[in-house]
Write a structure and sequence with these properties.
The protein is built from three helices and 22 strands. It folds into two domains: 10-48; 64-381, no CATH class. The protein starts with 9 loop residues before the first helix and ends with a strand. The chain has an eight-stranded antiparallel barrel with strand order 1-11-12-16-17-18-19-22. Strands 10-3-21-20 form a four-stranded antiparallel β-sheet, with no helix packed on it. Strands 4-5-7-14 form a four-stranded antiparallel β-sheet, with no helix packed on it. By secondary structure, the protein is mostly beta strands.
Length: 382
C-alpha cells in the first residue's frame, strides 16, 4: 500500500493515480495555475489587497441652535405724576374797582350805589381770621388751587417673562488671540414677552398756590364772621379795589390708586462671541438692537383734601400701543449636557424707550432705564 504525503501537491497525487483521466488532469492544472496567479497577486499586494469599508464623510453639523427660557425683567420703574388736582370754582379777577369779586371764603360785589366813593357795603366773609387789624384794618380774601404736582415712583422687583431665541454660528473668529482658544462668533435673534403690573396706593401731597386779595376797611371795625352784606345795604363800607399777593406753599392730602398694566413684547437682533473655557462649558458676550411693543393702560382715582376747603376727586383712564426702540448687551454661560442639549444662564441690560400714558392731567411712565433681564433655559443644537 502506497502512503500519500498530506503535504504533497495535487499534481503528485494525480500522477501517482493512473485512474484519473488525462482531461481531468489538464483541467485541474489550469485551475491551479489560475489560483496560483491570484495567490501571487495577493502576496504582491500585501495588506492593500484586503477588502476595506467604503470611506464616508461625516455629516456636517448644523450651524443653528434654538432655545427657550424663563426670563423675568428686573428693575422696572413706574412714575406717576400730575396727581392731586384741586381747583377753586373761582378765578382771580383783574385788579380794579367797580367789579364783582368771588372768593373761596367770601365776596366783594358792586352795591346799589354803584360803589360810590370806591366803597361797597355789598361784601361778606366767613372767618374772623381773615380780619387784619394792622394799619387801618383790612379783610383778606383768598382763592386756592393746587399745582397738581403730586408724584410717586413705584418699583417692581421682577416682572414675569419668557423668551425664545436662536443662534447662527458664523465660524471661528479671525482675530489671532481668540482664534487660538477656538472662539466662534455669529448672530443671535430673540423674542421676549413680559407682563407688567404696577400699582400704587400711597398717600401723597400736592403743593397749593393761594391768591390773596386785601380790601381796606378805612379804620372801621368789621362785624364778626360769618358776615354777609347786601346789595341795598346799608352796612360797613369796604374798599372795592384790592391789593394782591400770591403765596405758593401749604399742601393738600392726596389719597387714591394708580394702576399701570402692560403687555411687553421685545425682539432682539445682534451678534455674539462664544469662548469655550473647557470641554463642556463656554461663555458668550452678546449685544445689538431691540424693538419693544407695549400695549397697556393707565387708570387712576384721586381725592385731594385741603383743610378748610373740602375734598375734590378726579379720575382718568388711558390705553395705547406703542413702539419702543432700544439696545441690549449681556453675557451668558452655556453648559453642554450632550451633543444636542445644553443649559444656558444669562443676564443682559435691556434699554427701551419709556412707555408713556396720560389721562385727565395725570400721566404714568414705565421706565426701562435700569431694566435687566435674567434668564435660565435650554439650548438645542441640530
Amino acid at each position: 500500500m502506497t502512503s500519500i504525503d498530506s503535504n504533497a501537491t495535487p499534481f503528485r497525487f494525480i500522477l501517482m493515480n493512473p485512474r484519473i483521466p488525462l482531461l481531468t488532469l489538464c483541467v485541474l492544472n489550469a485551475a491551479t495555475a489560475a489560483k496560483g496567479g491570484d495567490l501571487r497577486d495577493t502576496v504582491a499586494r500585501g495588506d492593500d489587497a484586503k477588502s476595506a469599508p467604503e470611506m464616508v464623510a461625516p455629516e456636517a453639523s448644523s450651524r443653528w441652535r434654538v432655545g427657550a427660557s424663563y426670563a423675568p425683567i428686573l428693575g422696572l420703574e413706574a412714575k406717576f405724576n400730575g396727581l392731586g388736582t384741586f381747583q377753586s370754582p373761582f378765578t382771580p379777577q383783574p385788579l380794579g374797582g367797580g367789579i364783582d369779586y368771588e372768593y373761596d371764603d367770601g365776596f366783594v360785589r358792586v352795591d346799589s350805589s354803584g360803589n360810590a366813593g370806591d366803597q361797597t357795603w355789598n361784601w361778606g366773609y366767613e372767618n374772623d381770621s381773615q380780619y387784619d387789624p394792622s394799619g387801618t384794618g383790612s379783610i383778606n380774601f383768598s382763592i386756592t388751587n393746587s399745582l397738581s404736582n403730586g408724584q410717586v415712583d413705584e418699583h417692581d422687583n421682577a416682572c414675569a417673562g419668557f423668551e425664545a431665541f436662536t443662534y447662527y454660528d458664523m465660524g471661528k473668529v479671525a482675530f489671532a488671540p481668540l482664534r487660538d482658544v477656538n472662539a466662534t462668533w455669529g448672530f443671535r435673534g430673540g423674542l421676549q414677552y413680559a407682563r407688567v403690573e404696577m400699582d400704587n396706593r400711597a398717600n401723597l401731597s400736592t403743593t397749593l398756590t393761594t391768591t390773596i386779595d386785601s380790601f381796606d376797611l378805612g379804620g372801621q371795625i368789621p362785624p364778626s364772621a360769618p358776615y354777609s352784606g347786601s346789595f341795598f345795604g346799608p352796612g360797613v363800607l369796604l374798599s372795592d379795589s384790592p391789593s394782591r399777593s400770591v403765596i405758593v406753599g401749604g399742601s393738600g392730602l392726596i389719597t387714591g390708586s394708580r394702576d399701570l398694566d402692560a403687555d411687553v413684547f421685545v425682539t432682539q437682533f445682534g451678534s455674539y462671541l462664544e469662548i469655550p473655557l473647557c470641554r463642556k462649558f463656554s461663555v458668550t458676550a452678546e449685544g445689538g438692537l431691540c424693538l419693544g411693543i407695549a400695549s397697556g393702560s393707565y387708570d387712576f382715582e384721586s381725592s385731594t383734601t385741603v383743610t378748610g376747603l373740602g375734598t375734590q376727586t378726579s379720575s382718568g383712564r388711558d390705553s395705547a400701543t406703542r413702539f419702543l426702540p432700544g439696545v441690549y448687551a449681556g453675557v451668558s454661560g452655556i453648559y453642554q449636557l450632550s451633543d444636542h442639549w445644553a443649559l444656558q444662564a444669562s443676564g443682559r441690560y435691556q434699554y427701551l424707550k419709556p412707555f408713556e400714558l396720560g389721562a385727565n392731567g395725570s400721566d404714568a411712565t414705565l421706565s426701562f432705564d435700569s431694566a435687566f433681564v435674567v434668564s435660565l433655559g435650554v439650548l438645542y443644537s441640530f
